[in-house]
Design goal:
This protein is an alpha+beta fold and 320 residues long. The chain has helices at 30-37, 144-157, 167-184, 198-205, 207-224, 248-264, 296-312, and strands spanning 48-51, 60-62, 67-71, 78-79, 90-95, 98-103, 110-112, 115-116, 121-122, 128-131, 134-139, 188-195, 230-235, 238-244, 267-271, 274-278, 282-288, 318-319. Strands 2-1-11-10-7-8 form a 6-stranded antiparallel sheet. The longest helix is centred in the middle third of the chain and has 18 residues, at 167-184.
């Protein structure tokens, strides 16, 4: 047989899936497409920028409206606290299917690839955007790579047992917020929370029941806080909540709302083939940032001290 006879016929060019997903750098079959579609609800499949450098590596900024402002200012939808970035550094605008990038007169410039942006630039999937000395990658609305990134980022930053943030993520976020509070003079508060007598749940009903109580208590906490608050699991049955732009009085009010949410939840477990409802309470300590504090650990220590006061006073209460 001649070598030409062994040449494989050209592969048939496949059209994009009927669902509207665009080609990716990942080779996909039908099962793969189904898997990737399950990684994000339609509302999450938006064009986005992902940080590829800096302290908040992997953070995603979705373009969920006509305009996304990038900068250090509190009103920036993509707020990035970095000294090389201007308060209002750049903006992205949705124009039909296109996403347009414009620099807003920043001190250190905005770049796409190696080209400085002097006018409006239409971004393409995979473009590298540099603002100051930080790199971000642009993903189009139907990018499978973006959804895969979200999945990996979630695995790295979200606690699998409770669906709130990991300890590392929370401590990093607390340190960033504390630095911002020191520079701006804006308030910052922290809540520490511990589930009361949680060991009894595991001892009396088993670890499956304990896992259920942990998961549903965390959901109750998450449901009682605001969208800007950051809930994380510190370990075991201990949680913490970072409250940006929050005075102590408002933090105490929010902590009481969280306490009531945990206490009001009904935790239904399987007890030997029958269903049984458990009650669970929590003790909470609240502290606010004050200028002598040098780092996140000091604020965490102050909130933790208030938590132990709540325990000493009988549990199922807030101290601050």
């Amino acid at each position: 047989m001649h070598s030409a006879d062994r040449t494989a016929p050209p592969k048939e060019r496949r059209s994009p899936p009927a669902s509207g997903w665009e080609p990716s750098t990942v080779r996909l079959n039908k099962a793969d497409v189904t898997l990737f579609q399950s990684l994000g609800e339609p509302a999450q499949r938006r064009a986005c920028l992902v940080l590829y450098s800096g302290e908040d590596l992997g953070r995603r900024f979705a373009i969920d409206g006509e305009r996304l402002l990038l900068g250090r200012a509190a009103d920036a939808g993509a707020q990035i606290d970095h000294p090389a970035i201007s308060r209002h550094h750049a903006e992205l605008r949705q124009d039909g299917d296109a996403v347009l990038l414009r620099d807003l007169g920043s001190a250190n410039g905005t770049f796409v690839g190696d080209q400085r942006v002097h006018d409006v630039v239409a971004l393409k999937d995979g473009d590298i955007v540099r603002i100051g000395d930080l790199l971000l990658k642009f993903y189009e609305r139907h990018s499978l790579d973006a959804l895969l990134h979200d999945r990996i980022y979630r695995l790295a930053t979200v606690d699998a047992g409770t669906a709130v943030f990991t300890k590392k993520y929370l401590l990093d976020a607390l340190q960033r917020e504390l630095q911002r509070a020191r520079r701006s003079g804006r308030p910052l508060a922290l809540v520490c929370l511990d589930l009361d007598h949680f060991k009894r749940v595991n001892d009396d009903h088993g670890h499956n029941a304990g896992d259920l109580v942990l998961r549903e208590a965390a959901a109750a906490v998450q449901g009682a806080v605001r969208g800007t608050d950051i809930v994380g699991r510190m370990g075991g049955e201990e949680f913490a909540i970072v409250l940006p732009e929050t005075e102590l009085a408002a933090a105490l009010t929010l902590a009481e709302r969280v306490r009531a949410a945990v206490a009001g939840q009904r935790y239904e477990i399987d007890a030997g083939g029958s269903r049984r409802q458990l009650r669970q309470t929590a003790s909470l300590g609240v502290a606010a940032y004050v200028p002598p504090m040098r780092n996140a650990r000091e604020l965490l220590g102050a909130a933790d001290a208030q938590l132990y006061d709540a325990k000493r006073q009988g549990r199922n209460r807030v101290c601050g």
